[in-house]
Amino acid sequence: MISRRLLRVKALLALYAFNRRDDNDLVQAEKELMFSISRTYDLYHLVLLLVIDLADIAREKIDLALRKKMPTREDLNPNRRFADNTVINQLRENSDLNSFVSSKKLSWANSQEVAKAIYNKMIAWDTYIEYMKSPKSSYPADKKFIVSLVTDFLVSSDDLITGLEEQSIFWNDDLDYVGAMIEKTLRKFKSEEISESRLMPLYKSDDDERFVKTLFRKAVLGSKDCSDMIDRNTTNWEIERIALMDILVMQLAITEIVEFQEIPVKVTLNEYIEIAKYYCTSKSSTFVNGILDKVVREMRDNGKFKKTGRGLVGDLEKDDE
User: Is 279 left (phi over 0), alpha (psi -120 to 50) or beta?
Assistant: First the structure.
């Protein structure tokens, strides 16, 4: 499922795009936000398909070598460990994966040069070489390698990143998150399961879908109030001089604190400070942290929000200790 962190990032990027719109069409902006999230889910399945395609390339090369007029001993006795990886075979038969890619018509058929470039670099990868040389084959070893292939190799593959950028503008920042989703998915696979292993749903629950919709819409509608609060708590800085992305990060943080009583203030602040480290300037996280601290104190003093639920009562007072 799409993590709350990524949902916050998607809301931030949608908010930035909305601030660049000329028509202020909130309904259309919200549709684009939800489409962006659905495209991340497409990418999750597309990367799983890529793993299968890499094994298909390995099988093709083995078959070609066997058909040589004068095959070598190595050609006649190929190492099929990766080509016949048991976890990849589970993915081939996975009903969730097959159903989704069929309905969305997802495929690497038109990007085989990307898959081949990735394969050629993969076979020179130290982890791959060690995996292929291992004297014993086992399901845990197969799973461990595929998890490493996705999280260590594919998510940092320049060939894959470039290939994805050419296919969709919505995937520019998604690959690391998708890698984490796939890792969680594969760790739950069991050797006795063939087609029954479940893939992740788009959202953990309906609450997550409501969360991102409400966060984005309320941030847009409450932008004036948020800007005023930021302005009041910014010493020696006029709000016009603050970078737009810094403002939007703070705007979302303020909105989340006010609108979601069940989320602890510390969780919200930590999330947006981390997001600022990646999407804003090198000094933004410290700046955003300082301003939000003042804003939260003002909101608390004015009774702008109330946190309820187990572990949340007195949340703000604990923040002050």
Answer: alpha
Select from 11, 40, 23, 37 the least CA-distant residue to 245. Answer: 11
Q: Tell me how far apart the alpha carbons of residues 220 and 240 are, in angstroms, rounded to a whole number.
A: 18
Phi, psi of 228 (to 5 degrees): -65, -40
Contact by Cβ (8 Å): 225, 272: no
Q: CA-CA distance, 101 to 84, in Å (whole number)?
A: 22
What does the alpha-carbon distance between residue 178 and residue 2 come to, in Å, rounded to a whole number? Answer: 8
DSSP letter (8 states) at residue 201: P
Which residues of the chain register pLDDT less than 50?
Answer: 311, 313-314, 316-321
Q: What pLDDT, on the 0 to 100 scale, is given for residue 266? A: 93
φ, ψ for residue 209 (rounded to 5)?
-65, -45
Answer whether 68's CB lies under 8 Å from 75's CB: yes
For the chain, the domains span: 4-187, 222-320
Tell me, rounded to whole angstroms, the distance of Cα 286 from its chain centroid. Answer: 24
| Three state DSSP letters for 8-29 | HHHHHHHHHHHHCCCCCCHHHH
The yes/no answer on whether domain 222-320 falls in CATH 1.10.357.20 is: no
Distance CA 139, CA 152 (A): 19
State the amino acid at position 221 in one-letter form: L
* 3-state secondary structure (DSSP) of residue 233: coil
Closest CA relative to residue 83, chosen from 105, 106, 66, 70: 66
What's the whole-model pTM score? 0.90
